[in-house]
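WARN no homologs supplied; continuing
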Amino acid sequence: MTDAAETAPTRRRTSIGGRRNPESAAAILDAAAAILAENGLGGFSIEAVARRAGAGKPTIYRWWPNKAALLIDVYARQKETVLQADTGSLQGDLEDVLSRLFDFWRYTPAGAAFRSIIAEAQSDPEALERLRAFLVERRTYVREIVERGIARGDLPADADGAAIVEMLFGFAWMRLLTGDLGAAGDIPRRVHLILKGAA
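OK structure emitted
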């Protein structure tokens, strides 16, 4: 399904060479997010984004070398600033992080964007590498929360923080990919089971 606005003529913006023009970059990201929300990954293409944003394809490819890079920037732009929770317990901190993440995926276009990034990475090695690089920062954030809990004595000093983070991400991704974000009420039990296994 093609949105009429996607093909409507849009004012071309003045190029400023290899450096990103903030106005053009914002228009491209807006267009990409809208097309993804309306048509899904199957209807998402650089050509469609260029038409809707009123930008040239060479400009988009100069700033984003492939579709995966653009998708990741769409998602990163939507990503809310999550304040580091400090509820006084590791259980509470991780419940807060997962609840915020589920709400973010459920109530904004970010969930569809991230599912599309994961789908693209299954068949595109470069997209997979970009996804892995993108996740380093996200995992580091959650790992810091886990290590703070270990230092506080919520878990034994030899607890495997990396494994805890992987299990939390696995739970979250499974819910995202199966469209089961509505069942957030069981987050406390899932976090409890993961931490109990690490104790």
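The CA atoms of residues 46 and 88 lie 46 Å apart.
OK
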